[in-house]
Amino acid sequence: MNILQINSSARSTGSESTRVADAIVARLRASNPDASLSRRDLAAQPHPVLDETTLQALFTPADQRNAAQAARVALDDALIAQAQAADVIVIGAPMYNFGITVQLKSWFDALARAGVTFKYTENGPVGLLKGKKVYVAISRGGFHKDGPTDAQLPQLKAFFSFVGLDDVQFVFAEGMGMGPDSVARARASADEQVNAVLV
Questions:
Q1: Please, which residues have CB within 8 angstroms of residue 77's CB and are 6 or more apart in sequence?
Q2: 119-146, pLDDT tens digit by residue?
């Protein structure tokens, strides 16, 4: 088993989404002692944002790219190859201002490559990252699950479906900004959910 862990909090330390993602990975490795693990910390090593220069590089044929364009595309290529090689992807995804972090959005933008991780057909887009299990550790300062302020979960589900990741489990730690008692309850709940999804 090849495990890929993506930490997308802006915090390198003290992140609840990373703590829960670490717990998921620990359970996976306990059940699969020979599993390999690759970690990508998007706070420590942020992926470049999708800008005009990047778009120009991506839409330039490979044999016509200059050195700077080739180097930029290679960054995305390495990220895609890492995801393709994974059997299990574990993502720490905190909610910032009702959505995903800019760090995770940059990872998504790099991962979505027409003809590589998805393709367009006459019947619509088809995801090509098939046969992988995904676990997502979501942390939030307030309580948003199943409510009108939860713009994060639909975005995550839509993106995963778009690239073919259709076996996804979510673990929630909500109320992290509402005092010590709420934090304790959130952590206990998240740990129970980890145990439930990793039986």
A1: none
A2: 999 999 999 999 999 999 999 999 999 9
For 146-186, the pLDDT digits (tens) are: 999 999 999 999 999 999 999 999 999 999 999 999 999 99
Given a contact cutoff of 8 angstroms between Cβ atoms, the answer to whether 150 and 144 are in contact is yes
CA atoms within 13 A on the CB side of 118: 19
Residue ranges of the binding site for FMN: 9, 15-17, 95-98, 139-142
Give the HSE-up count for residue 22: Cα atoms under 13 Å, Cβ half-sphere: 10
Rounded distance, CA 114 to CA 75, Å? 16
- The pTM of the whole model exceeds 0.90: yes
Extract the annotated binding site. Answer: 9, 15-17, 95-98, 139-142
Tokens standing for 114?
């027409």
Domain boundaries, the chain: 2-197
Q: How far is CA 140 from the centre of its chain?
A: 16
**Domain made up of 2-197: CATH architecture:** 3-Layer(aba) Sandwich (3.40)
